[in-house]
């Protein structure tokens, strides 16, 4: 377990480091920092540890300034001689608040709380990963048939390819558009959907991946391009470049 200590009194910091290493043999003190400025610079350029022990009142300010200046995603155990900062401490990734002078018992309690939280997070992560693996497996099976699973907001929606008229890009968002006129913003890119869809879909340009049955007719469009007219009302022109014109015509013919 890698730990960073933020403490402006070196003797206190060394004493804390010694006590921690005696409590757990796998603890490694990777750095002892003594000020807001030094800590901010350190966390801006170095890999974050597993856990931080931090004093609150430092020589050049309050340690909460560090967590406002840089993004820190690891738990913090605050050690201080004053208890008026407890509420703010828990807003700054704090998981425990130890009053000085600390002792072995208080440090054991703090470390036990950290281990408990870490176990809870790992279990939650494993469950989420198992759910995603199951979803991906199901999606893989369905993608070889006639259905695609769309991650839409907090739901997973199954769509038959026969019900999807097209996918298109607008204002950096990807939409699924059905033959019934409904549209959904989806998380997948057009490139990802192009890989999932069967050959009845074609990427006619950068913005549109279209179902063949959605096309009413195509017409020449100056100069040497194509214009696609759909068999339902849609307020955007779908233009095919001259470079892709031959491929689109071949796809429609076959």
Number of domains: 2
Helix content: 25-40%
Alpha carbon gap, first and last residue: 62 Å
Unreliable parts: none
CATH fold field value of the largest domain: Rossmann fold
Order of helices and strands: EHEHEEEHEHEHEEEEEHEEEEEH
Q: Strand percentage, roughly?
A: 25-35%
User: What spatial form do the alpha-carbon principal axes imply?
Assistant: elongated
- Quick check: average pLDDT? 83
What's the Cα radius of gyration? Answer: 29 Å
CATH architecture of the largest domain: 3-Layer(aba) Sandwich
Which quaternary structure do these chains form?
Answer: single chain
Query: Under the CATH scheme, which class of the largest domain?
Result: Alpha Beta
Helical stretch count? 7
Tally the beta strands. 17
Helix/strand-derived category reads alpha/beta
Major β-sheet, in short?
Answer: 5 strands, parallel
Describe the protein in words.
The protein is α/β, with parallel strands linked by helices and 254 residues long. Helix content is 37%, strand content 32%. The protein has helices at 10-23, 36-45, 64-69, 86-91, 104-143, 190-196, 242-253, and strands spanning 2-6, 28-33, 51-54, 57-58, 61-62, 76-80, 94-99, 147-152, 155-160, 164-170, 173-178, 183-186, 201-203, 208-211, 215-221, 225-230, 238-240. The chain has a five-stranded parallel beta sheet with strand order 2-1-3-6-7.
